[in-house]
Amino acid sequence: MADRDSLIADFLSRTAWAGARRAPLAGDASNRRYERLTDPATGRTAVLMDAPPVKGEDVRPFVRIAQFLRGAGLSAPEIFAEDTVYGFLLLEDLGDDLFARVLERRPDLENSLYEAGIDVLAALHAVDPPDLPSYDPALMSELAALAFDKYRSGVVGDANDGIRAEFVARFRQLLEHAATPERPVLIQRDYHAENLLWLPERSGPARVGLLDFQDAMLGHPAYDLVSLLQDARRDVPPAIETAMIDRFVTRTGADRAAFLPAYAVLGAQRNLRILGVFARLGMEHGKPHYVDLIPRVWRLLQHDLDHPALDPVATLLRAALPEPTPDNLQRLKRQ
């Protein structure tokens, strides 16, 4: 079987980018890798996505969701060429101005960038979504239990199967009651400052470039809002979080009385899942820098658990999950 470099060369030979210079781009937590291609004659650039199927990657969902988002007037990258058999895409280069990097240079733009992020969600939720699997209470409660399977287990040595089962049962009921949407929308599920690009030369919601949306499903309108405002990788000021929730509710006409409990419950679900995912990345994939993000995720979870909507599980979780002390975090790095 041909190696990846030979397959890439063959893929590019069938495009206008066969003679392009190639340079690696930063990857993500997946098995995908990226390169920036530069045309030596024109200086024009594109991005190569290398997503090996043998490692469980599949570019077809990315293609489908990108086409949907672009059809809705949003700035997902244009797809110049694709090879779904071997897992290659040639994409429009949306640049390097991730929200997170822009805000390091220009913290004065924080409000403007988050407003633009909210406007993308409002525009996306105004259109009928494609046919996708549902991010439903059964799946969400099991994914939240990764906090037991990976985080708790990694720290104390066991997941406490009895308490885990009790949590899943209670949390599923809670999600069914407080976070089942009347009208499901497309949720990108990883909508945060490291996956959003600032494109100020464009207008309206198109000013935000979108990445890492291939795992999109149907879910509650609050889910991507939580992803954006309860960011595992950067501190979002409470005043920004409050203002952006207000902006979202105003733009979408959401019922505030029902929306705020759903926001807290979905925040807890997401942060519990991330605790487990980051612990797994540290223990099983040799990526200890994700463990360093766990204290922020823990703080976000505690904030969510303070909401009355989480009363059915808050005491259980606080008793069952160990705090991310320096010693406990070190245990997650030593596996």
From TrEMBL:
Gene3D superfamilies: 3.90.1200.10, Phosphorylase Kinase, domain 1. It comes from the Bacteria. InterPro entries: Aminoglycoside_PTrfase (IPR002575), Kinase-like_dom_sf (IPR011009). It holds the Pfam family APH. This is Aminoglycoside phosphotransferase domain-containing protein. It comes from Jhaorihella thermophila. Residues 24-248 form the Aminoglycoside phosphotransferase domain.
